[in-house]
């Protein structure tokens, strides 16, 4: 099957009736880039930078980070690369950072919250990112954004680092996009307000599902409540996509859901612009996309939004793709 799909490596990602989307891949390091290119992905939709920080006993320097980001964007050769700033805390620990022990780490001091409080750490990463933007199509994305103040504060640090680099005569991409992950319900709900200020959204369903249904993504006991196809999730996804399009912005998805066979018709129907998944799923997704009719998927999504349970949504979609 996968061998047969290899012929799709250089095919465009387009539905039967001509609607184009971007099929991108998620990576954790420059080592994953060959897999991205060999599987025909059109970009990197999520580069999780925490691994740069995790496999060691002290913070990575600006130079080390610059080298890593530059290597990835250069290998992608002009294709878009969305790099997520440090998303540590929650389930991911850093032994050399003295993080508080909390009762609910997934609701605690992590990601953008931690970066905004450790400004030196954050500025080092932002400076490395801005410098690397000179070498390809780099976009910066902040994780776990819950309020507009967080986005504004983080964006202001980027602008300050850009001003410093400009004064030093160091070149960078002046039109680098800065976006956010939508993985907290508050942000999905007021996507309209966010859309005026961010350049793009990428929906992180792995976290968005756990926060929307209040079901820990690591807990076996409540895994039955971890429901990607719950109508509430579809409603939030739709709200984010529509809000971005109303402002001429784009929306991607980089949670596991983006590569699922049942999700792809719904997401195409809701108007998702970019699907980012594990590289090994890209060709399968392209094969499925080539057989889909976007107008039928729109009708399917509209109907799915009226369903009352995940079970109903899944039954509806599975019947449609059978
Ligand atoms: C997500 O939450 O959907 C996501 C892509 O981020 P992570 O899985 O790294 O939390
Ligand atoms: Mg997440």
Automatic annotation (TrEMBL):
Keyword NADP in annotation: no
Cofactor(s) the protein requires to work: Mg(2+)
Record's function text: General (non sugar-specific) component of the phosphoenolpyruvate-dependent sugar phosphotransferase system (sugar PTS). This major carbohydrate active-transport system catalyzes the phosphorylation of incoming sugar substrates concomitantly with their translocation across the cell membrane. Enzyme I transfers the phosphoryl group from phosphoenolpyruvate (PEP) to the phosphoryl carrier protein (HPr).
Any one GO molecular-function label of the UniProt entry: phosphoenolpyruvate-protein phosphotransferase activity
Keywords recorded for this protein, A-Z: Cytoplasm, Kinase, Magnesium, Metal-binding, Phosphotransferase system, Sugar transport, Transferase, Transport
EC supergroup of this enzyme: transferase
Organism: Geomicrobium sediminis
Family per similarity comment: Belongs to the PEP-utilizing enzyme family.
Entry annotated with the keyword Magnesium: yes
Superkingdom of origin organism: Bacteria
Full-protein positions shown: 250 to 571 of 571
Reactions that this protein is recorded to catalyse: L-histidyl-[protein] + phosphoenolpyruvate = N(pros)-phospho-L-histidyl-[protein] + pyruvate
Domain PEP-utilising enzyme C-terminal: 4-290
Compartment list: Cytoplasm
Name of the protein: Phosphoenolpyruvate-protein phosphotransferase
Residues spanning the signal sequence: none
EC number: 2.7.3.9
